[in-house]
Amino acid sequence: GTDAALGFHPHNNLQLAFANCLEAMEAGVDIIDGSIFGMGRGAGNLFTDAMLAYYEQCDPERYHLVTVLQFADLYMEAQKESYSWGYSLPQLLSGIFNCHPNYPTNLLREKAYAANDIYGMLRKLPEANKSRYSIEQLEQMKEGHFSKLAAGAAVECSSSIADLCAKNNKRALLICGGSSVAAYQGKIANFIEASDVSVFAVNNPQPPLPADGVFFGNRRRVLQYFDQIPKDSEVVFGPEIHAGAEVNFALRKVSRVNALKIMPGGESPYPMVLPSNSAIEAILGLVQLGYQEIFICGLDGYSSNGPSHYYAEQDAVSVPEEITKQNAQIAHELKGTQQLAAQLGFTFSIITPTLFSDFTAESPLS
Known about the structure:
By secondary structure, the chain is α/β, with parallel strands linked by helices. It is built from 14 helices and nine strands. It has a seven-stranded parallel beta sheet with strand order 7-6-5-4-3-8-9, with helices on both faces. A two-stranded parallel ribbon has the order 1-2. The mean pLDDT is 88.
């Protein structure tokens, strides 16, 4: 006899790893071995995430899938691009929620949501709409998600960012992610030195130029980069970022903005929903924090003709129709922001080469 626990490590050659594990557990096995996405040579192994999904449905108080999905979404998709195995996250979510796979596929493709956001949206998908995909239904889900987050989010300006704004005469430079930041790095540095501006990076806490702070528009970006945020950096959060983030990530200088509250009483028809592009949300956020003249570099627009970012972006947009869609949406939101600027008395302009030439500075960098 022995007191040693008995483990079971299944392979998935016949797609029976899951079923075999259930049988093994019934037979008295103590430990089952798997991997996220079933990662393994050839057909792979047991899907830890699928097994957790099953047990969560059996006992939701004891088993929780979202954390594993978060890891899978942030890190494992990139691994899967290099090493082909197993199934896909959209198919798993489709199975969990009994819905058309285009819903999770398109939510994941946008690279704008953390796993728990997608989980929450799919959970609220009406039963009558699950089996048939509808773009209108998808947009309703997204709008409902953002509106709920933004409805109660307050606008809070740290004392240090108020001082920074006053010191730099209410002028700021946003460093976005476009490859022009690297191509024009020297000229941007000269612009910063000559222009007396506060410098904020968008969604990346370590740009190639010194910055006073960073703006994060969604939770996915915070989860990707929180461990790279300098402790004394100004951090500006959009309304998607949960209220405890500054404590969880040990951040000292945090301001919060909400584009939906940029007009007192909501008199303006724009924005009706949060901007889809973080750079545009950052423009409106800086206005809420007191800035009146905003310059932008690296808002190049997406392209299929080479890297669109100055850094290795794991969430880079690569699907041609998605590139076209996102560029059109950015142009639409820039136009709305321009109209709002005339109402509120602020200005913004792009100083590096861009697809959005209607919004370039009078004297762009060249």
